[in-house]
Amino acid sequence: MCSNVYSSALLCDCDSVCVCVDCRLSTANIFLSFSLFILHHLSNSTTLFTVHHRRVHSFSSSISPSFFGVLASQARISLSLSLGIYQSLQTSKISNNCVFPTMSSEPVAKDNKDFDIIDNVVLVNVKRTGVSGLPSTTSVISGIMEGLGAKVLLSSQDSSKGTVCFVVYEKEVDAVAAALESRFQKESVDGCHSKVEVIPNCSILSAVDQEGADSPGVGVSFINAQAKENVNVLAIAQGGSETTVTVVLKKEDCTRALQAFNSRFYLSKTTIAMGIVGPGLIGATLLDQIRDQAAILKKDFDIDLRVMGIIGSTRMILSDLGIDLSRWRELQKEKGEVADMEKFTQHVHGNQFIGNTILVDCTADSNVASLYYEWLRRGIHVITPNKKANSGPLDQLRALQRQSYTHYFYEATVGAGLPIISTLRGLQETGDKILRIEGIFSGTLSYIFNSFIGERAFSEVVREAKQAGYTEPDPRDDLSGTDVARKVIILARESGLKLELSDVPVQSLVPEPLQVSSSAEQFMQQLPQFDQDVAKKRHDAEAAGEVLRYVGVVDVVNQKGSVELRRYKKDHPFARLSGSDNIISFTTTRYKDHPLIIIGPGAGAQVTAGGVFGDVVRVASYLGAPS
Fold it and tell me: Which ranges carry the Aspartokinase ACT domain (predicted)?
């Protein structure tokens, strides 16, 4: 780096070093040199170094304000350096009123966005009533501040001019508050009632967007970004130039506020940090689909997906910049560490520069599903094909999701990649009324009864399905009907019914004597003993020109659900199904005479992962990605 340095100086406080470099150097070289310089000193446990950049407009280019973010992008340096700088600033001796570098996924051609942070400030709220004939609240505050030699950093008043809030440094607030109380105590004899409220431990965040004057809604979009990060804005001021928005917030909210700022002004609107839980068959397929589609999503739809972590039952891999999905399997073996769900969650969600986080649960684990509430509470979007959460207590998840500005999507819990949940929601959101939902929801049982024809034995078809990989390792998990019952509960709740799993009667296809078989192998050996029972049901159906189908029903009108083996005429849509396809029929006030039917593959890694991926893209669209 020394050959690029024009001058340097050690400041008098011995805590800061300023370095002048040639701004005509490539940004990547400057960033790489600075990073090595800072990393060297940090590794020797010295005081924090703060980089101040000065814009030199006579050159054709200048150092981007997004110093460390582009550093991570251009020089492939770990973001962990950037992540610590703002937090360190709060305890360093360097002035807090300094520019903090922000992140960009691309080099910035011109300096048109920036922000300042001022810490260690206090918000003072003054409310006066009965002030007719007395000096205005603003003039009173101005006089007191001038007399004390104190500085107002920000002020705002309501239309009545009786309520004013302003911000001062912590070191000045005691004197200011005392002077205000003294002044207002004297006014009380004239019928004026005043209240002074001091809110400590605040920070000021001032965002500058030189293009703001030409972009409607800059202030609103900035506040919306803060709301999505669950940051409470205590006060706001926007200049008439429309280029600067300044907010006051609690100091502990600064990290999330910076995330929101970076998401709104520097990153793609839909840069998303993702964590994948369960890289099994579904999870691995999803990762491969993201790998193949990532470049197209970024180029054509402004969606930048960065998988920051992958966690399995025993191992996990984490990355500050995003895992190379072309090598994630190798990286997990080479660089994987012991699985730690809390560390994983903190890493994926703790990136200060990416305000949007999605955790995707590709497991069937109820323990993972029990974590959804905490994830949503922390502002993390949750996507899953795991039915365990939605067939259990759901009201709390939904209430929290709405309160925390998060999304909780689970399209793949019913029908894999088929648009079942989204269709149901679309019908209701447009004013249609659901009367009945009926369907073949199990790809396994669809295959079994589509193949259970002629003189074939039921046990023979079940064995065939098991060998083809359609059933669970223990076929009783499918034949019990519990999986279908979970899907019925999910659809019932989406339809407005308050049903629990215990409310749904389920006709199990597992013969009662075999429900306690010690193993799947023993079950399969004993199942032929009961073939005659199912064969008789098939014979009776065929004699009436009907077929057997295993279905789930949501009867919204009578507020109940059921799972059972039913008979259908051979010209019924359910009777014409083939393979492992699912079919779902919606009877509504609009589709009463001719129900709306959705049919297609309801099982398989590709379609299930595709359904999950669709939810990821749906979250991105809600976060601002163009359609």
Answer: 213-265
- Residue indicated by tokens 């098939």: 538
463 and 592 belong to one structural domain? yes
Amino acid identity of residue 347, one-letter, is: H
Residues 242-264, mean pLDDT to the nearest whole number: 76
Express each pLDDT in 258-289 by its tens digit. 766 665 554 455 789 999 999 999 999 999 99
Give strand pairing partners of 250: 202
Most confident of the following: 235-244, 392-401, 541-550:
541-550
User: From CA 350, how far away is CA 76, in angstroms rounded?
Assistant: 19
Alpha-carbon distance of 576 to 583, in angstroms, equals: 10
For residue 271, the model assigns a pLDDT of 86
CATH number of residue 255's parent domain? 3.30.2130.10
What are the backbone dihedrals phi and psi of residue 479, each rounded to the nearest 5 degrees, phi first? -70, -20
pLDDT digits (tens, 9 = 90+) for 128-139: 776 666 777 888
Contacts by 145-153 with C-beta closer than 8 Å and gap 24+? Answer: 145/176, 147/179, 148/172, 148/175, 148/176, 148/179, 150/175, 150/176, 153/118, 153/121, 153/204
Confirm whether 113 is a catalytic residue. Answer: no
Residue 275 to residue 382: CA distance in whole angstroms: 10
Confidence of residue 299 (pLDDT cuts 50, 70, 90): confident
Which residues have CB under 8 Å from 170's CB, separation 6+? 120, 121, 122, 200
Phi first, then psi: what are they for 487, rounded to 5°? Answer: -70, -35
Q: Could you write out the three-class secondary structure of 165-177?
A: EEEEEHHHHHHHH
Is residue 453 domain-shared with residue 570, that is, in the same domain? yes
- CA–CA gap between residue 135 and residue 311 (Å, rounded): 64
Distances (CA, A) of 371 to 348, 388, 404, 483: 15, 12, 15, 21
Average per-residue pLDDT for the chain: 78
Q: Where do we find the tokens 């500058």?
A: 208
- Reading the block at residue 450, the tokens are 């589509």
Would you state the structure tokens that stand for residue 168, as one six-digit string? Answer: 């001062």
Task: Please give the pLDDT value at position 156.
Answer: 83
Q: What is the pTM of this model?
A: 0.63
90, part of any domain: no
Given the residues 487, 498, 537, 569, select the one marked as catalytic: 487
Domain that includes residue 400, residue range: 270-416+612-623
Q: Residue 609: what pLDDT?
A: 93
What CATH number is attached to the domain comprising 300?
3.40.50.720
Number of domains in the chain: 3
How far is the C-alpha of 310 from the C-alpha of 279, rounded, in Å?
7
Q: Read off the pLDDT of each residue in 232-246 and give the average, rounded to a whole number.
A: 76
348 with 325: CB under 8 angstroms? no
The DSSP output letter for 599 is E
Cα 204 to Cα 206: distance, rounded to the nearest angstrom = 6
